[in-house]
From TrEMBL, chain A:
The keyword Zinc-finger does not apply. It comes from Mycena indigotica. CDD domains: AE_Prim_S. It holds the Pfam family DNA_primase_S. Keywords: DNA replication, DNA-directed RNA polymerase, Metal-binding, Nucleotidyltransferase, Primosome, Transcription, Transferase, Zinc. This is DNA primase. Belongs to the eukaryotic-type primase small subunit family. GO terms for molecular function: DNA-directed RNA polymerase activity; metal ion binding. One of its GO terms (biological process) is DNA replication, synthesis of primer. GO terms for cellular component: alpha DNA polymerase:primase complex. The keyword Transcription applies. Its EC number is 2.7.7.-. It comes from the Eukaryota. It is an enzyme of class 2 (transferase).
Automatic annotation (TrEMBL), chain B:
Keywords: 4Fe-4S, DNA replication, DNA-binding, Iron, Iron-sulfur, Metal-binding, Primosome. [4Fe-4S] cluster binds at C292, C370, C382, C423. Belongs to the eukaryotic-type primase large subunit family. GO terms for biological process: DNA replication initiation; DNA replication, synthesis of primer. Its cofactor is [4Fe-4S] cluster. GO terms for cellular component: alpha DNA polymerase:primase complex. It comes from the Eukaryota. This is DNA primase large subunit. Binds 1 [4Fe-4S] cluster. The keyword Acyltransferase does not apply. It comes from Mycena indigotica.
């Protein structure tokens, strides 16, 4: 990943010929012609010399495109829809310029998995750690659709080591900061302090219904990813972390003695733990407690870890889809949650690759340039998504749906 | 006379509204549409503000819900009585009218900035919660019936379908489950339940059991008020033209900063503080004065002078404390021991007599309240607000010998701009030996809002202690 992965010349061509302005416009605007959701929307640019240009806004897609081409930012971010046009912010009366709407967004970043992943650390990501992201996407996607009833979810690869989720449902757009915080806390299970078990139970009652389906799926993920692939409990540090989460001192001591000096794999250690649980009688409260602990540990190691601050505030900026990641040169492309497991970050086109494709292709002149590159399927994915948003919006405007809750 | 009808909602509502207030609880849908004097306008708001300020300081002091409730109920009793329908010999309509008026005046005062709106909504919602919890259950049910809360009852079949899921959230036994009624609302209506993962969600609907109904109502109250405040804010520029109200409203919005002063102003001679002599002031200052007055006193002793505002602030405080005019002249004469009698008589005596209402327009000037001291430019000002952090720290240690844990506690309040809470905390710490506990404040949980209140309560405590000691000795 050299610096010329994103040279100014490449960026210039990319913004002029490849960036799908129209799709982004439709996606933000929820309608074919400019509305408040676009014209009062903040766009913030990160310029090459580390300058941040905030509170830009545009009347239509052409103006937007011209400015992007002129500024040639390293990337740009999308903010909320305000009460008035962000570019007129300075002329707005004090206290009357406020965010009113924005997509509900989530950010999952591999760095939050550093305490548990064994293959890479910090900025690196490999095919193996992608399994964590894949599990997180599946759980969140299901939970949000099933529990919150949202339909317009767009998952976007962040270009390096994470993934973003943008939710454009009408109700999600207008959530207050308090409601956003509530949904984040609903979806946060792993505690900041890694040595504490998730705080999800009320007394001795079973796992809350919202987490039951997640657990059923994550138990499989745990067996494959944590016990075998990542082998999280192999090292002494790893097995100590596991022991800290077991609430029964007798079992902890037994296991610690058994494991001392011996380097059995995670699967064997997990089996040993399970065998210890069986030393308590069926239906005894001690056993019930340990089974609860076991479930908690599975969640601790596999449940999605959210970057909470991104989601909690309406006015948080988040990098726009189809931007170029400045370090890797990869495009932030939409991802289909159904095929997330087989998604390979390394196969995402880079800006250099796209432009090479463009140069090699001498075919017809009739199509948009992006249609002649490997960007095509991704842009089409966004366009389909936009179509669904616009259909939904149109229905509401016709009053076909009763929205009087 | 001022007509509160600046809401853009036509006057045809007057007929609908009528003079009656059928419920104790109020969502404040309709503004007061009648003439009211400036005095009533201000006093209704001030009384309400006292209660709201106490709610704020309860939150700042981390009081538990039950404690807060007790304190606020006591405060409401005093300033904002609102009886239930069963109460005898009470003009219910009048109480409810004042409640409504105070609320709407404060809306005008607090709609001006995001920060004020947020704090106002929080305090008002807390007040509503307390009233809701203490409301008579029959009346409450009637009130709930009077509004459409947009909830959907969950049918038996649907309930049975989700039984297992519902049971993982709510602590009900199986036979209770059969009886429990569930309501469905959009999840956005109950963010607090979602936040704590305390509700069953399906397709964006929250299944709320009857006993959690209040959650929906509080939320409704909050969003309703938030929305209304935004509307009021937009109309404000038109109201600002009314010069009679601007001063009153500006003054009110200061109230959250300093709390609202209690009535110490016009009753100089309290029963327990008769006849303070000039020579007693040194001892009293060390034992009973709040930080600001102690600071003035020390400065006076160290420099043998005090600037004009210092003399005014401290002098009025001493007057209200019970120092007579004769004693006051002795006190100040002795304090300014580096000047001649002639200079004293010429330059200071008049001012002292003036502040006792014996010269000039002969007004009985009240002592400065915390609010006035806090919002003055400083010098002398309030040490908690106007001192630098380091200076305050060392002053606290040298004046009261605070332990580092207590000091940390106090400084934390200062850092969060809860100056009167910091002062109250110091009162609690320094009076621990008289049995004052954390959260007691200057009696029944009240916060410090006036330097004289601080000093008088402190002296009362000592007197009680002495009497008790005297009673022990036969």
């Amino acid at each position: 990943m050299t610096d010329n992965a994103v040279s100014p010349e490449l960026m210039d061509v990319f913004y002029r010929r490849l960036f799908p302005y129209k799709s982004i416009f439709h996606w933000l605007n929820h309608a074919p012609t400019p509305e408040d959701y676009f014209t009062k929307r903040e766009i913030a640019f990160n310029l090459p010399n580390d300058v941040m240009l905030r509170y830009r806004s545009y009347l239509d897609v052409d103006e937007f495109k011209n400015e992007v081409c002129k500024l040639a930012p390293t990337r740009f971010e999308i903010g909320p829809v305000y009460t008035s046009r962000p570019r007129d912010k300075k002329t707005a009366r004090q206290g009357t310029f406020n965010p009113v709407a924005r997509e509900l967004v989530f950010d999952i970043d591999m760095t939050d998995y550093d305490p548990i992943r064994t293959c890479c650390s910090s900025a690196e990501i490999c095919k193996r750690c992608w399994a964590f992201i894949a599990a997180a996407v599946r759980i969140l996607d299901e939970a949000i659709r099933d529990q919150f009833g949202y339909e317009h979810l767009l998952w976007v690869y962040s270009g390096r080591r994470g993934i973003h989720l943008w939710i454009s449902d009408p109700e999600a757009m207008v959530l207050t900061d308090e409601q956003r915080k509530a949904i984040v806390n609903w979806l946060s299970v792993v505690q900041k302090d890694e040595s504490k078990r998730p705080n999800i139970r009320f007394g001795s009652r079973p796992l809350p219904a919202s987490l039951k389906p997640a657990l059923d799926h994550l138990a499989y993920v745990f067996a494959d990813l944590i016990l075998v692939d990542q082998d999280c409990f192999l090292s002494e540090k790893g097995s100590e972390a596991l022991l800290r989460l077991i609430p029964d001192t007798r079992i902890v001591e037994t296991l610690r003695n058994d494991w001392a000096g011996e380097s059995s794999g995670s699967a064997a250690k997990w089996q040993a733990f399970k065998a210890q649980i069986k030393t308590y009688k069926k239906d005894s409260s001690a056993r019930a407690q340990l089974i609860a602990a076991m479930e908690d540990i599975i969640l601790q190691y596999t449940y999605p870890r959210l970057d909470e601050n991104v989601s909690k505030k309406r006015n948080h900026l988040l990098k726009a889809p189809f931007c170029v990641h400045p370090k890797t040169g990869r495009i932030c492309v939409p991802v289909d949650p159904k095929t997330i497991k087989t998604f390979d970050p390394e196969s995402v086109p880079t800006v250099a690759q796209l432009i090479a494709e463009l140069d090699n292709d001498t075919d017809s002149q009739h199509h948009s340039d992006w249609e002649r590159t490997s960007l095509k399927p991704y842009v089409e994915m966004l366009d389909k998504h936009n179509q669904r948003i616009m259909d939904h919006e149109r229905k509401i405007r016709r009053g076909a749906e009763d929205m009087t809750w | 006379m001022y007509k509160v009808e600046d809401r853009g909602s036509g006057s045809d509502e007057v007929k609908l509204h009528g003079p009656r207030y059928p419920y104790r609880l109020n969502f404040y849908d309709t503004p007061p549409l009648y003439d009211v004097t400036i005095e009533a306008f201000e006093s209704a708001a001030l009384n309400r503000l006292r209660v709201l300020a106490e709610i704020e300081s309860s939150a700042a002091r981390d009081r538990k819900w039950d404690e807060t409730k007790t304190v606020i109920i006591a405060q409401c009793e005093k300033y904002l009585p609102l009886k239930s329908a069963g109460a005898l010999n009470v003009d219910l309509d009048e109480q409810r009218r004042t409640d409504q008026l105070g609320h709407f005046v404060l809306r005008l005062a607090f709609c001006r900035s995001e920060e004020l709106r947020r704090r106002f909504v929080k305090a008002e919602t807390t007040l509503f919660k307390i009233r809701y919890e203490t409301d008579d259950s029959v009346e409450r049910q009637k009130f709930l019936g009077s509004r459409n809360f947009n909830w959907v009852a969950v049918g038996d079949q649907e309930k049975a379908e989700h039984q297992q899921s519902l049971l993982t959230y709510y602590n009900t036994k199986n036979d209770d489950f059969a009886r429990e009624k569930y309501f469905k609302v959009r999840w956005t209506r109950v963010p607090d339940l979602v936040d704590r993962r305390r509700v069953f969600l399906k397709g964006g609907w929250a299944y709320v059991p009857g006993k959690e109904q209040s959650s929906i109502i509080y939320q409704e109250f909050e969003t309703h008020l938030e929305k209304d405040l935004m509307v009021t804010a937009r109309y404000m520029p038109r109201l600002d033209e009314d010069t009679r109200l601007k001063g009153v409203l500006d003054n009110l919005s200061q109230g959250f900063l300093a709390g609202v002063s209690s009535e110490w102003n016009s009753s100089p001679m309290d029963a327990n503080v008769q006849g303070i002599k000039a020579e007693m002031v040194d001892e009293l200052a060390a034992k009973h004065f709040p930080m600001c007055m102690r600071n003035s006193h020390q400065k006076l002793r160290a420099d043998h002078r005090l600037n004009h505002f210092g003399r005014l602030q401290y002098g009025l405080f001493l007057k209200v404390l019970g120092l007579s005019i004769e004693e006051a002249i002795v006190f100040w004469r002795k304090s300014f021991d580096r000047i001649t009698d002639d200079t004293f008589n010429k330059m200071y005596k008049y001012n002292i007599r003036h502040s006792y209402g014996l010269e000039g327009k002969r007004a009985n000037y009240p002592a400065k309240t915390c609010q006035q001291i806090l919002t003055s430019g400083g010098d002398p000002g309030c040490p908690y607000r106007h001192f630098s952090v380091d200076n305050l720290r060392s002053a606290l240690v040298s004046a009261y010998g605070l332990s580092s844990a207590d000091l940390h506690d106090v400084m934390n309040q200062v850092k969060n701009n809860h100056f009167h809470v910091a002062c109250t905390r110091v009162y609690e710490i320094t009076h621990a030996s008289s049995g004052v506990k954390r959260g007691d404040g200057v009696g029944s949980g009240e916060s410090v809002t006036h330097p004289n209140q601080y000093a008088a309560k402190s002296m009362e405590l000592e007197k009680a202690k002495e009497e008790k000691a005297a009673a022990m000795v036969p």
